[in-house]
Amino acid sequence: MHLHILGICGTFMGSLALLARDLGHTVTGSDQNVYPPMSTQLENAGITLMQGYDRSHLQPHPDLVIVGNAMKRGIDGVEYMLNVGLPYVSGPQFLADHVLQGKHVLGVAGTHGKTTTTTMLAWVLDQAGLEPGFLIGGVPLGFKESARLGGGKYFCVEADEYDSAFFDKRSKFVHYHPKTAILNNLEFDHADIFDDLAAIQKQFHHLVRTIPSEGCIIAPVTETHIDEVLEMGCWTPVVRTSLTAHAQAALSAEQLQADGSHFKVLQDGVVQGEVCWNMTGQHSVANALATIAAAAHVGVSIETACAALSNFGGVKRRMELLDTVRGIEVYDDFAHHPTAIDTTLEGARKRLGERKLWAIIEPRSNTMRMGSHKDGLAHSARLADEVIWYQPEGLDWDLQPVVAAAPNKAKIARTLDDIIHTVSQEAGEGDAVVIMSNGGFGGLHQKLLSALKSA
């Protein structure tokens, strides 16, 4: 079949495009925002990309249109699709119908850490020889691409709570029917589609209702919002994890390094393995414990999982070191929420010690653009020595109160040139610069590196 994907450069849809290609379909796609790393991955895979959403992209007519959840009524391609009666489906539904049937699905859900944990899980199962398929909402460093069909019965999927399409407002993960489910954490997010935390918890409980009684749910002992979901009704055994020794935790960690780079894994208080890796932050340790528990549910020993994680390469745009110029380290991080900013900077601070830490932050997610998290932003960046908040045109609120509430040095930049000038003039050898955005940030990363090299 010829499949055309509207919104193909989104992290989910781009990965889905790779799976559709591997199923033998001809795949084309349209998107308004075509930028690396996803655009590069798709072009390398031989998938034709078109800029914008013009109806001409659907001529001649494809056999099926897969509609991304960023599509809205009024978009030219969407209106044309509906008016001429082209068959269409949401991305999650296509995945469920054409890829997940007959598979043991391992789903990773939560406000934070989905991409990294899904990648960890796929990596562990792969290193254990299980040949898992996977769909990851990012570009993993340990695999050639962000999705593959796999050769075994297992499929790891990033189970997102965002809605499926303009015609299907259920969360994506409701379609996946996982047998093994990681519920990493739960906070209020996606203010553009959810009114409050209770609305998100309702969707999470829809997911819980689909997990079989012979399956497994993995959740931290500290997540009260997940506890509230499970109290609505749970028919599946729950395995608990903890960053410290805890009576209710089947798996816990004994920290050997404060930055999370080295720790032992205990099962019911007995050491079963040890992880020494390049990841940092307590959130990374938490993700590792969930991964190990999920892998154990499909027969991978804790010792084997720990050995695999010790060789884990990470995910692009998750504290990814882009380059070191004149002794200045420049990192790219996909921060989309105050908690994500906080935990990322915590790991960086523990690793860097007294070295200067810069945070350059674009409040780009729909929730942050709406200002829903603005009261917590100043605190979330407190561990950086210097913070530059980017105030682009069109941001719905003023960042000045965030800067005023900052306990550290903070300023607003209204252009990329302002950011580049400040960092290239003031950063010195030994400094670390973390660029935080869930978008392309106008190409700031490479522009800053070029400026540092020529300074």
Topology (SSEs and partners):
Elements: E1 2-6, H1 11-22, E2 26-31, H2 38-44, E3 48-51, E4 64-67, H3 76-84, E5 88-90, H4 91-98, E6 104-109, H5 114-127, E7 133-135, E8 147-148, E9 154-158, E10 163-165, E11 168-171, E12 180-183, H6 197-210, E13 216-220, H7 224-231, E14 238-242, E15 251-255, E16 262-267, E17 270-276, H8 282-297, H9 302-309, E18 320-325, E19 328-333, H10 338-352, E20 357-361, H11 366-369, H12 374-380, E21 386-390, H13 400-404, E22 409-413, H14 416-426, E23 432-436, H15 444-454
Parallel strand pairs: 1-2, 1-4, 2-3, 4-5, 6-9, 6-12, 7-9, 12-13, 13-14, 14-15, 19-23, 20-21, 20-23, 21-22
Antiparallel strand pairs: 7-8, 10-11, 15-16, 16-17, 18-19
Helix pairs in contact: 1-2, 5-8, 5-9, 6-7, 8-9, 10-12, 14-15
Structural class: alpha/beta
Helix count, DSSP H or I runs of 4 or more residues? 15
Secondary structure tally: strands = 23
Report the sheet with the most strands, covering strand number, pairing sense and barrel closure.
Answer: 10 strands, mixed
- The overall average pLDDT, rounded, is 90
